[in-house]
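Researcher: I'd like a candidate sequence for this fold, 282 residues long. If you have to choose between options at a position, lean toward the conservative one.
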């Protein structure tokens, strides 16, 4: 049923995207009209509502900003494509890539290195599956909720809300902006309903469903996740924020296995992860 629903929604994606862009395009006009009632002319007394005159009045400044935006967008898309292709290559032939790193360890330690890397791969796999489940659930819930209250383009808005979960903390907040922009021209009541419903769905997903799903794959204290997001976000931008959680997950496995257990000789972490039957308890 989920697959059929996504296929049906995907078929309506072009039409809903056009409707969504049209609504957002008229939002500026609605905002300008409301400001004019209070004596505020957003474009200035001389420019009026002529966008061409407003943009062409300072071409150098306009094109410098456009060049900056295009440059940042292209670098971001390039990073996304590189990471996507690397993930595909690693997924098609993980054994050869793993063995190329295992060869760097001493022969007596290669079996241990191989086992730890297999564990790291399993953590990444479970994290990715958990993310797909969260994205699917979030997309369906937001899609159905916005459709029931009559908001235009509910599938597009639901899809971007679901995909935003790849960027922890920051993504769900940014996903609320398009929903608010689309609902704003349709009245204050619909705007309040849309924001409240999205907040409730996102809160349930973020505080209940998400932790239950990710707990099966990734056991990371929230404080360390926030630290990783801040550090990687400062170094790599949005891409670092999106990759913070999986990098911390595999890094945690490596630190516990190689440093805590092998170097320090502390096997309590391994014992604490076992069930009662494995620990000799009745």
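Model: Candidate sequence:
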């Amino acid at each position: 049923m989920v697959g059929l629903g996504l296929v049906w929604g995907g078929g309506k994606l072009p039409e809903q995207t056009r409707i969504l862009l049209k609504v957002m395009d008229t939002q500026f006009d609605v905002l300008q009209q409301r400001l004019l009632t209070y004596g505020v002319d957003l474009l200035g007394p001389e420019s009026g509502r002529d966008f061409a005159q407003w943009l062409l009045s300072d071409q150098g400044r306009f094109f410098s900003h456009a060049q900056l935006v295009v440059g940042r967008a292209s670098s971001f898309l390039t990073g996304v494509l590189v990471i996507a292709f690397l993930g595909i290559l690693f997924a098609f032939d993980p054994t050869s890539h793993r063995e190329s790193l295992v060869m760097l360890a001493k022969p007596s330690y290669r079996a241990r290195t191989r086992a730890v890397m297999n564990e790291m791969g399993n953590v990444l796999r479970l994290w990715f599956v958990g993310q797909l489940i969260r994205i699917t659930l979030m997309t369906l819930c937001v899609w159905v909720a916005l459709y029931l209250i009559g908001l235009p383009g509910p599938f597009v808005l639901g899809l971007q809300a679901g995909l935003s979960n790849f960027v922890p903390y920051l993504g769900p907040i940014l996903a609320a902006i398009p929903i608010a922009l689309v609902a704003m021209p349709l009245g204050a009541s619909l705007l309040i309903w849309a924001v409240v419903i999205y907040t409730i769905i996102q809160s349930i997903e973020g505080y209940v469903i998400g932790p239950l799903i990710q707990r099966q794959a990734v056991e990371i204290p929230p404080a360390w996740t926030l630290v990783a997001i801040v550090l990687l976000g400062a170094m790599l931008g949005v891409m670092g924020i999106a990759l913070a959680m999986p990098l911390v997950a595999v890094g945690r496995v490596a630190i516990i296995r190689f440093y805590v257990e092998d170097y320090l000789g502390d096997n309590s972490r391994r014992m604490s992860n076992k069930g009662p039957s494995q620990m000799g308890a009745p």
